[in-house]
Amino acid sequence: MSPSVRRVPVPDVDSHGSDRHPSDRDGDDRDGDNRDREDVAGVTGQTVTGSVVGFDPDELVGFRIGVTAHRRSADLIAALERRGAEVLHAPTLRIVPADQDERLIVATAEVIAARPDILLVTTAYGLRGWLEAADAAGLGPSLLEVLSEAKILVRGPKARGAVRAGGLRDAGMSDEETTESLIDQVLANGADGLTVAIQLHGFVDEEQLVRLRQAGATVITVAPYLWTAPSEPQRVQRLLDAIAGRSLDAVTFTSAPAAEALLAAARERDRFDQVVAAMRADVVPFVVGPVTAAPLHAVGIDAIYPDRYRLGAMVRTLCEYLIEHHVRRVPTRHGLLEIRGRSAALDGQRVTLSPTSVAALRLLADAAGAVVPKARLQEVLPDSGDDHALEVAIARLRQALPQRDLVATVIKRGYRLDV
User: What angle, 0 to 180 degrees and rounded to 10, lies between the N-to-C axes of helices 140-148 and 102-114?
Assistant: First the structure.
């Protein structure tokens, strides 16, 4: 059975404290995803219908989180670190403006010469970059004149804002804020014989371009920015090692290309099976929306995303999910034991544990004082297939804990917490 993508509805607020409806989604502030907005509004602490949904400086203490975003990654990292998380940043792709790319100037000249009937604007960031590049090349006035005569359709509110800021007017917005729904709108009104210019957002969906061409349209594409390989591939290697070694609690994605790039890098480095297995189990993937989730879903990985496809909502979802599912609290004879991510606190004294020690301690905590058989512990601990290896693993756990006697031995049976 194929996995289901887990969708976690959470409140989402903008910087003015008002709820945002899904119809307000736009695609400019993310790493190129058609529906999934990278927007940190609402992650600094707001009140919605009487409940605080924002900032808690300690809620991610003990958790280690991977970040794959390039553009605006600083916003996401800051939001996580303010909550106490340790962040491993490894952009799997890099966005490069194409303003110095001769192909962009050639495409601009082609648009001017063709005088398209329709212009599809996918991102505000892309349109602004295109108009600036045209100005720098001396083509700005001619381009604006041609575009002012075209029927302009936009993918979302921010793209609409950029169109109007450029002195142009749009004729409508897509229903779903995807390239597919934008082209659906064109095809619904007939495209045969029309010239359609499309401002791409860095990730070319050839299937959608083919749909237009098959309907009889002439298609011109303009790419104001490009996806390229990361400038520091060694950071991607460290991220893959951390996922495969299960030393991360979560990994975040803000675009489908970033997710695809991570999987491709895992294949190239012969870590694919380990990475996929980890993300199906201990390393939870969080994404901004279903489009970003699709590459992960295709290889059997569930991804968690919020009801509203924004970065702020993803951060809130991540916090709530990890606190609910990855924090354990057990009263013991030595004080309250709290396990958070890769850390454990006993009577307020917090220590960082290895992935092996965390796995063992979680199993003991779940048993709440009952004996955990040796065979059961060996199932979750790598390289502990015999009693001696298990004893070594438990000894290391005890050594790392503030109180060694927290883990008690039950002779010939196994181990338990001293609750």
Answer: 40
**What's the number of domains the chain is made of?**
3
Whats the size of the chain, residue-wise?
Answer: 419
Residue 110: exposure state from Cβ atoms within 10 A (0-12, 13-18, ≥19): middle
Q: How far is CA 79 from CA 53, 143, 271, 313, in A?
A: 13, 39, 29, 11
Distance of CA 416 to the CA centre of its chain: 38
Residue 322 pLDDT more than 90? yes
Q: Dihedrals φ, ψ of 163, to 5°?
A: -60, -45
Are 214 and 111 part of one and the same domain? yes
Q: Measure the CA–CA gap between 287 and 167, rounded to whole angstroms.
A: 35
Same-domain status, 101 and 167 = yes
Between CA 381 and CA 49 the distance in angstroms is 45
Q: Look at phi and psi of residue 237 and say left if phi exceeds 0, alpha if psi is from -120 to 50, else beta.
A: alpha
Instruction: Check: CB of residue 37 under 8 Å from CB of residue 12.
Output: no
pLDDT of 179 reads 82
Same domain, residue pair 200 and 100: yes
Distance CA 192, CA 350 (A): 67
Say which residue the tokens 């092996």 belong to: 356
Counting Cβ atoms within 10 Å, is residue 56 exposed (0-12), middle (13-18) or buried (19+)? middle
pLDDT digits (tens, 9 = 90+) for 387-400: 888 899 999 999 99
- Residue 44, token pair as written in the block: 């600094």
The DSSP-derived string for 336-400 is EEEEETTEEEETTEEEE--HHHHHHHHHHHHHTTSPEEHHHHHHHSTT--SHHHHHHHHHHHHHH
Q: Which two tokens stand for residue 340?
A: 């958070």
